[in-house]
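Troubleshooting entry. The earlier prediction with pyridoxal-5'-phosphate gave an output that would not parse, so I re-checked the input for stray whitespace and re-submitted. Clean input:
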Amino acid sequence: MDRQAGTRADRDGRMATPIQNLGVYGKNRLWMKREDLLPFSFGGNKARKAGLFFREIREGGYDCVVTYGTSSSNHCRVVSNLCASRGLPCFIISPAEKSGQTFNRIMMELFQAKVTRAPVAEVHDVIEKKLEELRLAGYKPYFIEGGGHGNLGTEAYVQCFREIECFEEVRGIHFDSIFLASGTGTTQAGLVCGNLLSQGSRRVVGISIARKNPRGRDVVVDSVRSYLSAIGWDVPEPVVKDAVVFVDDYTGGGYGSGMEGVKDAVSDVVRMVLRVYGIPLDGTYTGKAFYGMTDYMKRMDIRDEDVLFLHTGGTPLFFDGLSEM
Ligand SMILES: *Cc1c(COP(=O)(O)O)cnc(C)c1O
């Protein structure tokens, strides 16, 4: 394990997450950045994003939080955990979908998040109503988009990209490709922005876990543009479009446990990665992304590269799926 890059802290005292060398994988060398090891609430990309939201909450004097997500949402678990640790009431608007018990939901209950269920079509109105109601009651509510989507979420992964560059510098290597699970696309947008800002030549490949193209790619492109324009950077449209690789061949049934078509392949990969590397992946996000990466590298005949897989977390979902394996 690398000592210098693995333990370097930023100005706020935060440590970089480790990047592990997993050795030869197929025709390439595989590395993994362990965002799942971020040290709060089982980590993951939602923990990194939430760190920035909660700084704003503290600095802005907000006294409660409203957000959106399903019962299996890693985002809602992390946000409700942070609220509980700071003594802030947490309100979650959740689509009224059928879904079983999940460890994330059990933890949200443990953190006493107040969940309001609403049909998907009414979610927007229900959120507005909740915010209004809280303001009338004298609160100063802070709203976080589902999944931590938005420029601040993107910023979190620009910072993560800097950690990756820093690691490369210290170790004298260069990642040719970075693969990750892409949902709302904010995490991917952050890495793409980081890469553009440093004029990097890395290929950032988002493996879609639910959305189909062209919408899936468009959302990532919009997030990239929105962030760059907010920081006053003018990058030509074709450059942005070129930089966003969004692969929608491995979505299966999308969010939740439905994985028609890719289920067996994903389960095999999850079992293999646990057995060989001792690293947990889940069937909704990281397992799909790892399987997608493996297949994509074969299909595109990628070889002799240093490939980085960003482990975006979701450890409670690993346990949800464990007994089925
Ligand atoms: C939310 C999530 C993602 C997707 O992140 P986006 O920024 O929404 O694309 C990937 N992996 C895990 C484990 C997640 O919880």
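This one parsed fine. The first helix runs from residue 4 to 7.
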